[in-house]
Amino acid sequence: MNFRNQLIESDIKAVKEILNSTGFFYDFEVDVAVELAEENLEKGEEKSGYFFTIAEVEGKAIAFSCYGKTPCTAASFDLYWIAVHQNHKGKGIGKKLLKMLEIHVAKLNGKNIWIETAGRPLYSPTRKFYEKYGCDLVAELPEFYGENDSKVIYLLKV
Question: Cα angle vertex 33, ends 72, 64, to 5°?
Answer without folding.
Answer: 95
